[in-house]
UniProtKB/TrEMBL annotation:
Pfam families in UniProt: PmbA_TldD_1st, PmbA_TldD_2nd, PmbA_TldD_3rd
Molecular function (Gene Ontology), one example: metallopeptidase activity
GO BP field: proteolysis
One GO cellular component, as annotated: cytosol
Keywords: Hydrolase, Metalloprotease, Protease
Positions of the Metalloprotease TldD/E N-terminal domain: 22-86
Source organism per UniProt: Thermosyntropha lipolytica DSM 11003
Protein name: TldD protein
Keyword NADP recorded: no
Keyword Protease: yes
């Protein structure tokens, strides 16, 4: 996409002007999306975009510009713009030698988006709509979304590194709304990965539609959730939303360096139960947050953040790593060439433990079992969080009891991790697009089934229970 000789000459310009570090991130992105709602194809988009982001660092200050003009002249103008506060020039050779970095590992083959015609994808959406509506007349709305991206990237910098990478990501979402007697409930299911349309498996979108519709219908009959302090069992199928939001962001090095993380100055200290190990791993095959190289050309890595409750380190990009005198962990990520890289999670999860799932439930006299998480908020400076529970069940006398609706869980991230007293031997993933500094990147998060001794559950208490007394609606 970009000739290495052109990249060499442009980077030489930055060094000759006095830059401490300069980088060019060139990107060619093919995208496609489909939105199908209420039996109608509402939108199909396809696009091709090319551009380059240019970063120059001098005396600790960073300038970033981007351009759609990827000619040599356009890139040179970008370098000059980024380096508007240059120091005196240096006498250098006319070119910078670039060496190609070999991929440290490879992922398994994928079914690329162009291998599936749009007519077939539209047929998938229609069939998913019919599958959900066939569950009952209470199904009032079905929406299906498909998104795919295939991009080629070239990264070159003044360290003499040249990286070329290709990435494919696909994602599907089915959302189903059911109504009865004035009550409205929603079920949704997603699938996605750093892969092609093989992620859907044999059931295709129909499997997602049926699961989403079934949950929406069952929630119509569910009782309002109780409220109070109680044990919470978070099933593996809920994914690692809590570890991502209430823990993961606080372990990104830029937030730590700015004093915006509850984990600042906690390295080497106990920040979680000894049963808890937290890992960020970009090398997992076909997971939504996986990559061979990050967006600074650093190989994707497996980084142990918390080991048996002890904080081991943070997630770094090049700049934050240089600030702390460590190596980058390969977590420098950006949404596109229009954005500068910052430390971001990839696939973040709590490692599986040894407990059998049935035993975790059996040893819980009363509590809430969370099988699907919704949206939420977290304050990274103190770790406080609140999350919606999309699918939750009461646990009574060591058995899973009725489905409840309207539950929320709130607490403090570090406190919650310190109060984990059971960790299951399973592991379940969820996917999403994580937002930070105005840009979103694909991520996955995961956890085994875990039990937290006590969290605040919001809802309604209709009678006194073994764990809580009658309280008002929250």
């Amino acid at each position: 996409m970009l000739d290495s000789r052109i990249l060499s000459r442009v980077l030489h310009r930055a060094l000759a002007r006095g830059a401490d570090f300069a980088e060019i991130y060139g990107e060619e992105r093919n995208t496609g999306s489909l939105f199908y709602e209420d039996g109608r194809l509402e939108k199909v988009n396809q696009g091709l975009e090319k551009g380059a982001g240019i970063r120059v660092v001098k005396n600790g200050n960073t300038a970033y510009v981007y351009t759609n003009d990827i000619s040599e002249e356009g890139l040179l103008r970008g370098i000059d713009t980024a380096y508007h506060a240059a120091a005196k020039a240096r006498d250098l050779d006319e070119e910078l030698a670039l060496r190609i970095k070999e991929a440290p590992f490879v992922f398994s083959p994928v079914r690329r988006p162009e291998e599936v015609e749009w007519e077939e994808k539209i047929r998938w959406a229609k069939e998913a709509d019919r599958a959900a509506r066939s569950l009952g007349e209470e199904i009032r709305q079905v929406t299906v979304g498909i998104a795919e991206v295939e991009k080629k990237v070239v990264i070159a910098n003044t360290e003499g590194e040249l990286v070329e990478k290709e990435e494919v990501r696909t994602r599907a979402v089915v959302n189903v709304v059911a109504c009865k007697d004035g009550i409205m409930q929603t079920g949704y299911e997603t699938a996605g990965g750093a892969a092609g349309w093989e992620i859907l498996g044999e059931d295709g979108l129909n499997g997602l539609a049926v699961k989403a519709g079934d949950l929406a219908l069952r929630l119509l009959e569910a009782k309002p959730a109780p409220a109070g302090r109680m044990p919470v069992v978070m099933a593996a199928e809920a994914g690692g939303t809590m570890v991502h939001e209430a823990c993961g962001h606080g372990l990104e090095a830029d937030l730590v360096g700015k004093g915006l993380s509850v984990y600042k100055d906690k390295k080497g200290k106990q920040v979680a139960s000894e049963l808890v190990t937290v890992i960020d791993d970009a090398t997992l095959d076909k997971k939504y947050g996986s990559y061979v190289f990050d967006d600074e050309g650093v190989p994707g890595q497996r980084t142990i953040l918390i080991a048996k409750g002890e904080l081991k380190g943070y997630m770094y990009d090049r700049l934050t790593a240089a600030r702390d005198g460590v190596l980058s962990t390969g977590n420098g990520r950006r949404e596109s060439y229009q954005h500068k890289p910052v430390p971001r999670m990839s696939n973040t999860f709590i490692a599986p433990g040894n407990d059998r799932i049935e035993e975790i439930i059996r040893s819980t006299p009363y509590g809430l079992l969370v099988k699907k998480m919704g949206g939420g908020q977290v304050n990274t400076t103190n770790g406080d969080f609140v999350f919606e529970v999309k699918e939750g069940y009461l646990i009574r006398d060591g058995e899973v009891a009725e489905l409840v609706r309207g539950a929320t869980i709130s607490g403090n991230g570090p406190e919650a991790l310190l109060n984990v007293d059971r960790v299951g031997n399973d592991l379940g993933f969820a996917i999403g697009v994580c937002g930070k500094e105005g840009q979103g990147v694909p991520v996955a998060d995961a956890q085994p089934t875990i039990r937290i001794k006590e969290l605040t559950v919001g809802g309604i208490v209709e009678e006194e229970t073994p764990a809580i007394k009658r309280i008002r609606r929250r």
